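Example 3.
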Amino acid sequence: MLWVDLRFLSRNWAKTLATTLIAPVLYLLAFGYGLGRGVTIEGYSYLNFVIPGIVALTAMTTSFNAAGMKLHVDRLFYRCFDETLMSPVSLFSITIGKTLIGVLRGLISTAALLVACFAFSPLPTVNVLFWLTLVVTCFVFSFLGVLIALLAKSHQDMSVFMSLVILPMSFLSGTFFSLSQMPEALQVVLYISPLTHTSQCLRAAALGQPFPWGSLLILVGFGFAFLLGSYVVLRRLSL
Amino acid sequence: MSEVITTENLTKHYKNVCAVEDLNLHVNSGEIFGFLGPNGAGKTTTIRVLTTLAKPSSGSVYVAGFDVAKEPEKVKKVIGVVQQHLTLDLDLNVRENLELHGRLHHIPSGDRSGRIRELLEYVGLTDQSKRMVEELSGGMKNAAMIARSLMHKPRLLFLDEPTVGLDVQMRRRMWDLIRRLNRDGTTIFLTTHYIEEAEALCSRVGIVHQGHLIALGTPAELRQKVGLVTVETLVDGKFTQYEHFPDRSSATNYAESLPPDVKTILIRESNLEDVFVELTGKTVGDEER
């Protein structure tokens, strides 16, 4: 299942990498250097505070797009997804296969971003917990991408979801500022967002704070929910 | 002869629209079966059900002896499908499209490249193997889709409008390819808008209209039903009227009995298109849905 997407990636890797890196690097420059110079949050320099947030954000958007967009295009524009459905491959394999490309691209992009970050300011630590969180996050949002791509009936549906769910999440989920700065009612809402948990885990790991295992668990829960959702939708779709 | 497709009272409806109703279809192994009908008659729906892409609302459907609703995976292994629209992956080249299909069908990697080479040669695309799909002409794209559908050596091949939009030369090459496939042992289930295509290729034809199968038989049998000889007359200089007769003498008698002001008269052998129009009542493609 993954092979086809790898072919695509290998043909377009430079373009892909460049486009996925532009946004986070811009955020880094604008917020990290432009706005945040001299600001400290929770006792850390803003740059150190914001980098894990931007990594979280990149992991989310890249995985979601990589898993969702290609599947969406295959299904509605090339209409070659029918071919996949007509092959003797189990629906579960299809779901996982379509997800893996998102995970892979998410990890590649975040790794590249981290390399770029080191050029600006070395993070205190990028440890095992950091990577663990990243992998889980990439799975969560790849599954979400697959789910939404399977549900979408038009290109419009995709972009509506992007602007109503993905975009607000990317700004508000503790990526650019601490959640404790928000009104309490909003905090409650934001804790529903999986990305909030990602940025908290990543930040804790990077800054050497106690690791919020509960948040990681919630992420895993989201992952399973989206996986199950995709599988159910695919079943309904194919027969 | 064994049956490769059997449907018993197949019914499929989408929400309120009934696309296919009580369809009973039997296709024998080794034949080229033509499935005809006006737009919206239920052809594509039937194909979608037969190829496991849609679930029948009621009735039973067997392909190669397997129940489509219960054992779709087994059905998928023995059928090849060429859909009417382009379903190649545009991000891949021709070779890679075939390779992907081979992987999806679990063809061992050792056999894959040989099979791809063989098939590209079979459909005449050897020189195009490295080109991206979008660079191909319409006929080449269709040929590539056929090649892809043959990767896993299906016993039964579904061709949904394989010659739409092709020029005459390309269409004839496609016909030759279809005949050759059939000679090599593949049963073919073909839908088409071009009635003469069905007449040229098919051993048996089924005509579906408004979700019902309204005729089934060899082209000659169907012609016999309507009449083997057709008389065309131009009425008021505006539209052509068709009358069908069992033989030439009765047709001539009729032509001679016409009033002298009817000028343009043509007596000819009837064809499948006459049968089609006679049975479906409208010219092909004109039905609104």
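Chain A touches chain B at residues 1, 3-4, 7-8, 11, 70, 74, 78-80, 82-90, 238-239 (CB under 8 Å). The longest strand of chain A covers residues 40-41.
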